[in-house]
Each structure stands twice: as structure tokens, then as C-alpha cells.
Amino acid sequence: MSDLKAKLTEDMKSAMRSGDKERLQTIRLILSAVKQQEVDTREEQSDNDIIASLTKMQKQRRESISQFESASRQDLVDKEKQELVVINEYLPAALSEEEIDNLISAAMTKSGASSIKDMGKVMGILKPQLAGRADMGAVSAKIKSALA
After folding, report:
1. What CA–CA distance (Å, rounded) separates 85 from 79?
2. 91 with 54: CB under 8 angstroms?
3. Angle at 49 between CA 119 and CA 92, to 5 degrees
4. For residue 118, what pLDDT is reported?
5. Do 58 and 11 share a domain, yes or no?
6. Considering its fold, how many domains does the chain have in total?
7. Residue 59 maps to which CATH number?
8. CA–CA separation, 71 vs 24, rounded Å?
9. Which residues form the domain of 137?
10. 81 and 113: one domain?
């Protein structure tokens, strides 16, 4: 069992004991997504696989929050934000803008990227380094502006 999955399981038990229903519900949601991936792939999920699932869940929550805000559904916005807080606890610490910029320039140098056609090479280098630690949409925009 991966370290992250073990931590999630232990935190689920703690949330049950303490009666923290919202936290328990979110952790169960995360573990359910992990279990679904294990069933789909027929293999145990590594920490990196779990982080990828968490990143996807994080992105879904952010999109839902913006949609619920535009629909004036504050009750749903609050629920999604609470889930996002719990999800973020299990993701690696986010990188600063400066750290992201440094990684982008290093990846561009390493890949020899000179035009927008080389964006895939740069993203290929950066994706494993930034998984769960940066918004890949924003990173993509920075790379495009640097290559333009």
C-alpha cells in the first residue's frame, strides 16, 4: 500500500472517531476514486497515481465553484470549497511563481525549444515535475508566451 493511501485510510479512521462528517465524506470520496482507478487498471495505485487523481479532483472542484458562484448557489460553493481544502491537504506543496518560471526556463533549455511547435517537448519535461504542485493551465500559458 502506498504511503499516501495509508495516510488517507488512517485519516478516515480519525475523522470517524472525531465525528467530523464533512472531512470523512471527502476522504471517502478520495479513497473511492483511488479504488476505482485500481479496479480500472487492475493494479495498486502509487503515490504519483493518487496525486494525479487528487489533481483531477482539485480541478473539478475549482470549475464547480466558479459555475456555482455564477448560479448564485452559495451552499454548493461552500461545500466544494470545504472539499477542496481537504483535497489540498494531500497534495504536495504548491510551487511559487518564481520556482515555476525557473523550471520552465530549465525545461526550455534542456529540450532546445525555440518555437511554439516545441511546446509538447517542454510540457513533457515539466508535467512530472509539476504534477499536483501547479495549475498546468497557467503553466501552459506561461510556456506559450515564452515561446511566442
Report:
1. 10
2. yes
3. 80
4. 86
5. yes
6. 2
7. 1.10.1510.10
8. 27
9. 97-147
10. no
Which CA distances in Å does 116 have to 86, 110, 122?
37, 15, 10
Say if residues 139 and 103 touch (Cβ distance below 8 Å): no
CA 65, 69, 70, 71: dihedral to nearest 10 degrees?
100
What are the pLDDT tens digits along the chain (148 aa)? 789 999 999 999 999 999 999 999 999 999 999 999 999 999 999 988 999 899 899 999 999 999 999 999 999 999 999 999 999 999 988 888 899 999 998 998 888 888 888 888 888 898 888 877 888 888 888 988 888 8
Rounded to two decimals, what is the model's pTM?
0.77
Residues 60 and 107 both lie in one domain: no
What cell was used for 64?
464547480
Residues 11 and 71 in one domain: yes
In whole angstroms, give the CA distance from residue 65 to residue 6. 29
Distance CA 98, CA 32 (A): 35
